[in-house]
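Example record for the data management plan.
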Amino acid sequence: VDQLLAKAPVPVIPTFVAPLQGLRPLEQYVDSLMAQDPFRIGETAAASASAASSETPPVDPRTLIADMKMVGISWGEVPVAMIEQRGQTFVVKPGESVGGAVVKEVLVDRVILTIEGHDVELY
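Corresponding structural encoding:
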């Protein structure tokens, strides 16, 4: 097999490499981003995030971070973070809330959330 791969005219990516666990298909992220356009800062994204958080049942603050996952950051004049919670992706900027947490700061590699006066970093 190694000799055949060495003779291949183009690089061959092995098919046995498992996909990254925990990631959903791209279409699901695109659908979420289309519903919450991260480039219209302050318009519909804030309303969508606050409406979704009001529909979410109350969550114990200790377990809030356990079901949150940062899936992306859009860096610009006003950086925004894409945070996934319970299968739903929220596009939020500093000052907006997701679940029971308020986004304090969006950095290049992480988001700082404030929960009941305590800062928590989400990677």
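Summary line stored alongside the record: DSSP finds four helices and seven strands in the chain.
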